[in-house]
Amino acid sequence: MKYALKKTATMIITLFFVSVLVFFSFSLIPGNPAISKLGTEATPERIEALSHEMGLDKPVTQRFTEWIFGVIRGDFGKSYSYSQSVTSLLSDKIKTTLLLSFMAIIICTVISIPLGIFMARKSDSKLDIALSTINQIIMAVPSFFSGIILTLIFGVAFKLFTPGAYVSYKTNLLGCLGYLFFPALAIALPKISMVSKLLKDTVLKESEKEYVRTAYSRGNRTKAVFYGHVLGNALIPVITFMGMTFADIIAGSIIVEQVFSVPGLGRILLSSISGRDYPVIEAIILLLAFFVVLSNLIVDLLYHKFDPRIHV
Amino acid sequence: MDRTKKLKFIIGLSITGLIALMTIIGIVKTPYDPCAMDGAAKLAGISLKHPFGCDQFGRDILSRVLVGVRETMLISACVVFIGVFFGTVLGTITGYFGGWLDEILMRLNDAVLAFPSVLLALVVIGLYGSGRYQLIAALGIAFVPSFARIVRGEVLKIRNLDYIQAVRLYGASHLRIIVVHILPNLKTVLLSSIIIGFNNAVLAEAGMSYLGMGVAPPAPSLGRMLSEAQAYIFSNPLTAIFPGIVIVIMILGFSLLGDTVKKN
To answer: Taking every pair of C-alpha atoms in chain B, what is the biggest distance, in angstroms?
Structure first.
């Protein structure tokens, strides 16, 4: 419990530093957002009025404290290019991106763990060699290209889904999950090969240890040794790796959303970058940072539970 | 086990050689001007004249792929160089001297390392705009922490070896110890992490240019070719397949080579 508290405190401090860094780096960019919004031909009075309305005439430190207290209450300020608050702009998109990421994580776990176990048990057979070769190739396929291939195979050839016809989770949850399956698979594919390869390697390494020989010599059957002794220990490095993968999956969803035209955080992040909509960019970065840090925290806690000797 | 490793090494080396060849062809001379449009050859299929076909403006895809490989490789080389250079400087200083500086820099390093490189690069591009040099800077910054961490770990190990203690007793300065006695011993670690770095840099560059945050059009880049080809995926899927396969082959070559070098 003390461990969990300490970890949570570290997480909050990290997030605070990220928000300081994000806010000040975007405040230091030369150029007045009010001018870029009104155009260079606007009169000085109008620019001044808009600067005042956007709160740009206040000192940076005051703006920061106002912003950070707003963020704590869930208010990220107002978007420059859309005339609405960032929170209402993003609330749907966060859910879409999280749904996509969770689906990718679930697909990855459900396929990679059994696959890794299977490959370890059939190690050095022809099947294992074939699977390992396929794994090596899949690892090299970036998610946006596997997304395009999946679209070609399942969207164009088999017509299992219509590319670009995203349904919101609000109107049709099942349809939405059906559409998100292929993007989630595209994100998960390279992770599946990495995790199953790692699991296979750790299982094989673990099987050579002395406690396994002891377990056999006590008369245990192969299956009992494998599931009762080897697997638990072999999973520890795999869990750490999967924790690091969560962050990658969230980042991967930014790219894959673009492939499948899913209206999530990634799409609006890209359009805000080209539109220089700083409040939206700041909010998205902070949200993504929050998810990344949170997933790291969960992994650390799980890791601690699996092996109480570890204090990361 | 040894045979598969040898096989991996040979395949990885040949692919890397092929990529180097493509880069050189991309620098010296491509069959067509990669930006020259030919109205008669719009979305042309595979033929002897255009072995990979043509895109929606009638530009030769083979030439564009070759120049795209050159761009990706040059950008990746710059990114890896930035990562290795600053990573080595940071890692050596923190690993060798330790103390509070090490504590602060490594906490910062870990925080940056926790974020995926594409995300970090997007933040930097959000600040400074998109383009070739911004992309190099953005990815370069994102690549420093991983190299710093690897170098620091290695320096920590070497620092406590007997021969370093002996040199110190001779009265060698810190600078001499670092430059003459520690840095040469980082070669093997750096070699494998440079190859893996290339693997990641190619992946990140392709991803960023797919998102439209890389080299500005009409200059060709592999990622952008993919995203442009997506509009014609129903009628002409080949325009997407060739640049995609080239990206896969590049990453495969580096990952195979990296695997074998790491274990040796």
So the answer is: 77
pTM, to two decimals? 0.86
Same domain? For A191 and A261 the reply is yes
pLDDT in tens, B139-172: 998 899 989 989 998 998 888 889 988 998 988 8
Among residues 171-210 of chain B, which lie with CB inside 8 Å of chain A? 203, 206-207, 210
CB contact under 8 A, A251 and B119: yes
Give the model confidence (pLDDT) of A267-279 as tens digits: 888 888 888 888 8
Mean pLDDT over each residue of chain A, to the nearest integer: 84
For residue A231, being part of any structural domain is answered with: yes
Same domain, A233 and A296: yes
Tell me, yes or no, whether A2 lies in a domain. Answer: no
Complex-level ipTM: 0.85
Last residue of a domain, one of A68, A86, A104: A86
Give the gyration radius of chain B's Cα atoms: 22
Handedness of CA A27, A30, A35, A39 (dihedral sign): negative
- To the nearest 5 percent, what fractions of chain B are helix, strand and coil? 75, 0, 20
CA distance, residue B66 to nearest chain A CA (Å): 18
Name chain B contacts of A256, Cβ cutoff 8 Å: none
- Whether B211 sits inside 8 A of A270 (CB atoms) is yes
| B40 within a domain of the structure (yes/no) | no
- The reply to whether A195 and A211 lie within a common domain is yes
